[in-house]
Amino acid sequence: MPADHVVVLTTVDSEAAARTLAASAVEARLAACAQIVGPITSVFRWEGEVQTGTEWRIECKTPADRAGALEEFLNVRHTYDLPEVVVMPISGGSPRYLGWLVDETR
Fold first, then answer.
1. Cis peptide before 39 (omega within 30 of 0)
2. Residue 61 needs a FRET pair 20 to 30 A away by CA distance; which of 3, 33, 80, 104 works?
3. CA-to-CA distance for 88 and 86, rounded, in angstroms?
4. Element containing residue 89 per DSSP (H, E)
């Protein structure tokens, strides 16, 4: 059973970039809200080497039917060559909040 609402995650390399990307997604009505978490330490393999970097995670809440447009929006505006964009289903929650989430993205 597919979820009606999702959280779309991405990471960026600065708090300023996170604030800009989060605000632009909400302004475009692709996300009802976006929370910024960080700084966080990321360990990843890139171009054959294990690397460590400081990042900020953006958690965008949106209806599932807006996830594809939000993913495209994030990919176009992202500064990384290969941005992390992960969509996670919301399996439940406050009906009032989930209704608000839909209303704010229309």
1. yes
2. 80
3. 6
4. strand 86-90
The angle that helices 15-27 and 67-77 make with each other, rounded to 10 degrees, is 140
The CATH class, in words, for 5-104 is alpha beta
pTM for the model:
0.93
Question: How many CA atoms lie within 13 Å of 12's alpha carbon, on the beta-carbon side?
Answer: 19
List all residues 6 or more positions away from 88 whose beta carbon is below 8 Å from its beta carbon: 6, 7, 8, 9
Summarised one tens digit per residue, pLDDT across range 31-63 is: 999 999 999 999 999 999 999 999 999 999 999
Per-residue pLDDT reduced to its tens digit, 78-100: 999 999 999 999 999 999 999 99
Contact in structure between 25 and 60 (CB atoms under 8 Å): yes
The alpha carbon dihedral of 68, 70, 71, 73 has a sign of positive
